[in-house]
Amino acid sequence: MKRRRRANLGAWLLALAATLAHGALHAEYGDVVINKRSDREGVRPVIFPHWFHRIRFQCKVCHFELGFKMRAGANDVLMNDIVDGRFCGMCHNGQLAWGPERCDLCHSGLKGLPSGIVGGAQTSGPGRW
Known about the structure:
Strand order of the largest sheet: 2-1-3
Number of strands: 3
Oligomer: single chain
Largest sheet: 3 strands, antiparallel
CATH class: Alpha Beta
Number of domains: 1
CATH superfamily: Cytochrome C3
Order of helices and strands: HEHEHHHHE
CATH architecture: Alpha-Beta Complex
């Protein structure tokens, strides 16, 4: 059993090292890719790990208290908004979570990655599939 765990850990570490060495991440199932302006502005697209945030916070935290609309692509978020403490900047302020000066942590997608939800998790809106 211990050997299997070490083998699994080794495989996981190897995959992580390969990903980090590549310098850009692919989006995973349920992630939201945001590339409205990134390619034009010369930065990598944002990969927003929706499910990572969702298991920690209720929907209303971001979609009511922070002002995000309930539709991927419906929010027009600019870096100035985040720096000014709006949208993502409410939490990503350098105190609660890393601040906007850590560009690479959010702008981590491969150039040319299209906007949208990875994995086909599109709905017609809250509660309607």
